[in-house]
Amino acid sequence: MAPHYDRPPISRVYENLPGYGVDLYVGGREGASDVRLLRANGISTVLNCAVNLDFNYVATPDEVSHDSRVEYGPAPIRYYKLGIVDGPGNPDTMMLAGYYQLRGALDQVLPEKASYPFRERGNLLVNCRAGRSRSVILAALFLHLHIPAEFPTLLAAIDHIREKRALRPDEWHETPKPMLIAAAERTVGWVRLLESHHEAAE
Asked: Could you list the residue range(s) of the whole structural domain that residue 98 is in?
């Protein structure tokens, strides 16, 4: 097992995403749970890709919780949840869903209605428990597919994020996990196949 190094709770891995004008961050549970830190970095959207980690960003619940019910209501952070296992066990559809959920979170425009009080389009954080594997591969997959001229291979995007996230060479064998890299490689093929069919149908 590789040693675990201290690193920032969140790391900006890409500035000014083409077509969106926002920054992409990667982080772990400490950063994703720190709303002040998120707001200080202009982060309005969080995509949590860890199946074994949950957050409640609701500051003022619509109703007082009771019995077995949990608090609910609008939150100052737009929160999206995906469930990737940090190891074997993920169907290809989960990584594919993660790519489209990340892209969808960036594309989505909320309506100007009272039931959507937080419509700010700020920066986006992809997080998992430690910010070393699942979040890295999902962000790398997106960068490779969204900016292929800059990241012509998935590995190029992974290496870029490793540097920005301060992941050391002696932990690269699990940052991200090999089976997640393989799943992302397969997802690249699925995305290209789906989008070629979509273009042919138009």
From this structure: 10-201
